[in-house]
Amino acid sequence: MDEVQVTTRLQHHQLTNAQVWSADGQSLVYDLRPAQHLFTSQCVEKIHVETGKVTEIYRASKGAHVGVITAHPQINDRFVCIHGPESPDDEWHYDVHHRRGVILSSGKVETLDACDITPPFTLGALRGGSHVHMFSQEGDRISFTYNDHVMRQRAVEEDQRNVAIALPYHPVTVLNKAPREHDGSHFCVVVSQTTLAPQPGSDQISRAFEEGWIGHQGYINELGERQRWALAFIGETVSVTGHSVPEIFIVDLPDDFTAYQHAGDQPIEGTERCLPAPPAGIVQRRLTFSDGVGVALQPRHWLRSSPDGRLIAFLMADLNDIIQLWVISPNGGLPQQSTQGYHDVQSAFTWHPLGKAITFVLNNQIVIYDLTLDTIVPLTTKTSTAPCAEAVVWSPKGDKIAFMRDIGGFRQIFTVTTTELYWC
């Protein structure tokens, strides 16, 4: 297959790990940070993959930066991205606990997550920074990772990364606003549970991250019933020998919006001494017990479920210490090794829109792992330098895959066409 270079301007173009295609599959969205590790992009754009037409979606002002943009799966002109603080200063500048999500739609900008950092805290608001926002398949709910300003003021280690969601229940208004506090369009809650000092050998975790929605319509549980809403994420456990071991966890989420208002043992909105807590009835469940191997943290990847919700894909080393693609059921059980090669999987991955296959970088090539045929299908020629690891993203129609290469010191966006076997 011939790959096509989509962007050509002499600047960096950064794709997010998923949801970078417009709903109609015609355009790609990205930010313009000057380097992968620098969050200093001033705007987010989209480019039509056939015509090359570039459209600026949004430009920040007052010294703020924006990036990590994702596209609504059903609506063409609707996006969400990270927004840094306006008028940053020594006390409040861009950091993991000083950022928010914004929804961009038809030229309008709407803050997603309300922020309340002074007690009494507000139900439905958060107290810090949200990151890598992912729409559910319908696009009405959004997941993200979260860091807490209030706990970080106490001690850096008390700001444990968690997974949170934004619900279209009702907008959240923060009363008696202090500087840096703001309202939000969605009702937000933390859904993971972390512990400052996990007990060795237990299911307690110190961090929750790299989450993914389960299925387009949830999954079928062990009782044969449909669990409509669920998220999988990586949780950092501690082994009996005291080592950090990333494992896979899942939380089943209620359908009813009002259920998210009922507190469990700790307040949903948090206190001055504790993080915001999951609502009552949300219990995280451990799926993998890797005997110390752990989910691979490099290459960085996000857990991604098959569209039908039957399988969660992840990366983990095999017995020969080679990073392979694995899958596991949301109901648990033993994980199944998918790839069997002699080369490490080198990137994040995404599923075919109908669940036929998974695409990623292997042996410096964009490849497809076909689940039905149990085989690797190379799509690009092997090059001396691998495509970039952060994003290999299948289009909604299954006909193209988007990825990035470093060309002449700049990160450029490419696409490669798949075989007709994978077109939807």
From TrEMBL:
Name the SUPFAM superfamilies on file: Tricorn protease N-terminal domain
Name-wise, this protein is WD40-like Beta Propeller Repeat
Species of origin reads Rosenbergiella nectarea
